Amino acid sequence: MNNTNPFGEYDDGGDAPTSRDETEPRHIPVPRTSIEDTDLPLPTPAPTPFPSPPPSPLLLEHRVLKALLGAWALAACSAEETVAVEDHLGDCGACADEALRLREAVGLLHRPESLDLDPALRTRVLEACLDRRPPRIPVPFWATPYDAETARLDALLQDIGDAEWHAPVRLRWFDGNEPTSRRTTVAGVLTHLLTVDGLVAVTLGLDDPLETAADAPTPSARTEAFWRAAPFPPTRSVRGPWREQAHNLVRTVAFAGGGSGRLPVPYGGFELPLCDSMLDRAFETWVHAGDIADAVDYPYEPPSPRHLHAMIDLGARMLPSALAARRQAGLAAPGRTRHLVPAGVPGRSLRLEIEGLGGGEWLIPLDSPGALASPDHEVAHVALDGVEFCQLAADHVPPEEAAAGQVGDREAIRDVLFAAASLSRM
């Protein structure tokens, strides 16, 4: 029977030699003896050094402590001075009130700055680069607002999480004399932009994201058709097609050159030249990016002043036609003349003054779209902030609350403000 001896050596019970002589002493380590089991004295521990006494507080006169209040408010005192000042503030009410006033003043001097980049930063960087090396194929100036706004929206979409793509958003526009809305999600807003931008894509010979485009000529009809055709609610996957289409639009108009700006883009009931349509798409992108930012509780700034001015100019140029359409539908007061003022003939005018970002002045003809706006025939003057005018044109501000200043014909002012709200659409 095979076995193993207690020392870990194999023993078959026979005469086979082992690896160690039996007479050799076994080397088994003995247990160590604790000093506590002997009569030896225990070692004396090293003495613990006494902690150094805290520094004695500064004893300063009242006038010196009062002179240190400004430095204390700016956190510029030493540790000893800070302790002395704060101990004094607990005993002196006059100095405590002064310290509170100085600390509040310091808070006004150091306003918290947003971590978000300046919306004009991208434009400034591109302009600086292009000043050094002009582009071989430049983007037309009327397409740069769309390029900038799609890039800003894309940066916002990159920062939101999966769940936020399903955050509720309400699209708003003005229908007749009443505001209306449509409930959707962040992903649904992006599909709306994708399908309406497709009108420009078709004009440029690019693919249409909507397969049933013939049955949906208007922006709202295209959006509803896309939502109905989708088997599932939109998700973040729509970002890829939207982003690719936006890049293709900018690239195509750059290769087509500035002359392509005269191509007509149909919107169902009306059409815009391509140069104005790209501005319109930039405006819609900014407005709906703001809707998305509100839904996910994220700050979002207006466009750069130059781009905002171009968007305001487009709205001001569309006002006469919008006013005439509302008058024809019986939603605005009839003109003061029996017949429409012929094209090129001066007629009643309203001065639209836009203050702040993208500001300027526009004379709006009131009697017919073709009439010549003339300062000699000015009957009203309206002043609005630039961003507020754009919010009015997007039906994010009620017409009754939009104008900051109104002088002149109240009926004409009301008609123009409601015409501006009617520029909005889904």
Provide a brief overview of the structure.
This protein has 426 residues and is an alpha+beta fold. The chain has 13 helices and ten strands.
Shape: extended
Instruction: Calculate the mean pLDDT score and round it.
Output: 83
- Briefly note the CATH topology name of the largest domain: Four Helix Bundle (Hemerythrin (Met), subunit A)
What's the N-to-C terminus distance? 95 Å
Query: Which structural class do you get from the secondary structure elements?
Result: alpha+beta
CATH architectural category of the largest domain: Up-down Bundle
**Number of separate structural domains:** 3
Keywords: Transcription, Transcription regulation
Biased composition (Pro residues): 42-55
Organism: Streptomyces aurantiacus
Domain Mycothiol-dependent maleylpyruvate isomerase metal-binding: 147-293
Describe this structure in words.
By secondary structure, the protein is of the alpha+beta class. It folds into three domains: 62-109, no CATH class; 138-295, dinb family like domain (Four Helix Bundle (Hemerythrin (Met), subunit A), Up-down Bundle); 311-421, Nonspecific Lipid-transfer Protein, Chain A. The protein is built from 13 helices and ten strands. Strand 1 (3-4) and strand 2 (10-11) form a beta hairpin. The longest helix has 24 residues, at 305-328. The chain starts with a strand and ends in a 5-residue tail after the last helix. Residues 1-20 have low confidence and may be disordered.
